[in-house]
Amino acid sequence: xxxxxxxxxxxxxxFSWLLELIGPAFGEGVWSPLAATSxxxxxxxxxxxxxxxxxxxxxxxxxxxxxxxxxTTAPRKGSTERTLNAIAFSRSCFKLRGSRLSIPPARVLSFxxxxxxxxxxxxxxxxxxxxxxxxxxxGAELVAKRNGKTLTGKTVQGExxxxxxxxxxxxxxxxxxxxxxxxxxxxxxxxxx
Length: 193
Prior knowledge:
By secondary structure, the chain is of the alpha+beta class. It has one domain: Hotdog Thioesterase (Thiol Ester Dehydrase, Chain A, Roll). It contains 5 helices and 7 strands; from the N terminus they run αβββββββαααα. A 4-stranded antiparallel beta sheet has the order 2-5-4-3. The longest helix is centred in the N-terminal third of the chain and has 24 residues, at 3-26. The radius of gyration is 19 Å and the shape is elongated.
């Protein structure tokens, strides 16, 4: 496979993974622009060879979600592990259609049902009450205010409990991946992701 083919197939794998991960949020007008991807190549994938792409979440902060796509081929002779051919490390954010504000990844993940069952129950309730988009927008405005941004136009009035995302159980794993994500562009340590 030529190096230029990796971006094309990684984009399809990324979209499929995001659709599975945050599908309900897409239905509320959330989209995810890709900000950057860095590729590291280890072994050639021969033309016509079968390969797999595995996409995994590395971490997220108040704006960015970081994830890795691992390109692998069948194990080499005498090995039981798949051959790591390339890694694509990507950074993207979440936006609400019609808004320039970034929605915190924790809010989008929570809305999509990640975490305790109460998160998805909240999503169903918000959708039924026609408040889902407002809850997502409220999260974006909250972070913007914390970062000192001046908001123009009409802002969303939050309700009781709207500040919480409900992802405390993932905080340790998020923090573990964050130092790697913060080295974006430095590929040291990516082989183990």
